[in-house]
TrEMBL record:
This is Putative deoxyribonuclease. It comes from Weissella oryzae (strain DSM 25784 / JCM 18191 / LMG 30913 / SG25). InterPro entries: 5'(3')-deoxyribonucleotidase, HAD-like_sf, HAD_sf. Belongs to the 5'(3')-deoxyribonucleotidase family. It holds the Pfam family NT5C. One of its GO terms (molecular function) is 5'-nucleotidase activity. Transmembrane segments: none annotated.
Amino acid sequence: MTKKLNVFLDMDNTLVDTLPVLDRASALAKDFGVAKPDQIPGIFRSLAPIKGAVAAVNTLAESAELYILTTAPWNNESAWSDKLAWLTEHFGNGPASPFYKKVIMAHTKDVARGKGGILIDDRPYHGAAEWQDDDFKTVWIQYGYDERLTWDRDLPAFLKLVANLAASEDLDAQTAVAAVNERFNYKLRAEEATMQLSDWEK
């Protein structure tokens, strides 16, 4: 059996439309007795998926071995369970789910690089940028940095081509991504690992 390429997916602002809700709720944090909106109990539970994400992920699971690699606010206990509940709602909670027993919550995402593969994450923080690593041959693709690399545009097809090439030629993630991207010349990530923050995040 051909080994599938590992693809790790961030949740917030990559699968889940999180930031607009947190920005709108920033004025309510004090009403809940917390410092930031991401600490409001239950705020991560009922967020909308990013456009096209659910269908694209289910299709991508045919070609790649998918994992969730996400962070959750340390001072919001419900965020951890809410994220699992969100995944169950949108992808199921059994062996047929692409994420069944393949969910990693960590504040330093680079700890998972040893398994190899690609991380899709909108931000460089919490170890995401460190996935662009020549020693591990891993790749960080910054979700949406190239406006074409979104779930409702080119990202699913691009990842499927990469996964199929990696499997057929027994290539590591970096080599496969570079080979496929010669045809498209996508901007895979910002040159500098920085990003504008909302006021409440500073």
